[in-house]
């Protein structure tokens, strides 16, 4: 199962996708999703926000997703605390798998 399929299998209810980038985690699904990122993206239900200080009330979402985000923030613990604060049920996060890098980078490596 790939990362996006795994995230979708764990998510439920109203979802907050923090650090959504282009919104790939939930593109084409029927989830009710609010997307946030530090950069602007042309997505429906998008809000520009810093993951360290989410502009939502406590317990606002059933699922909060941090997909490949924690390695990009200055204070991962604070981001996890914020995700927990705004989640009613669960926080779902993924981090890169360094052992998969050779497979992911292969298309970009020159032929020898």
Automatic annotation (TrEMBL):
Lineage summary: unclassified sequences, metagenomes, ecological metagenomes
Coiled coil: none
GO molecular function: S-adenosylmethionine-dependent methyltransferase activity
SUPFAM superfamilies: S-adenosyl-L-methionine-dependent methyltransferases
Matching CDD domains: AdoMet_MTases
Pfam families the record matches: Methyltransf_11
Organism per entry: marine sediment metagenome
Domain Methyltransferase type: 16-92
Database matches in Gene3D superfamilies: Vaccinia Virus protein VP39 (3.40.50.150)
Designated name of the protein: Methyltransferase type 11 domain-containing protein
């Amino acid at each position: 199962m790939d990362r996006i399929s795994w995230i979708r299998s764990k998510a439920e209810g109203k979802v907050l996708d923090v650090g959504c980038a282009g919104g790939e985690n939930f593109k084409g699904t029927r989830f009710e999703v609010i997307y946030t990122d530090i950069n602007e993206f042309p997505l429906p239900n998008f809000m520009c926000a810093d993951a360290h200080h989410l502009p939502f009330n406590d317990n606002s979402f059933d699922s909060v997703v941090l997909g490949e985000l924690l390695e990009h923030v200055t204070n991962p613990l604070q981001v996890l605390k914020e995700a927990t604060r705004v989640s009613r049920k669960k926080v779902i996060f993924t981090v890169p798998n360094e052992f998969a890098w050779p497979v992911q980078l292969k298309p970009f490596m020159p032929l020898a």
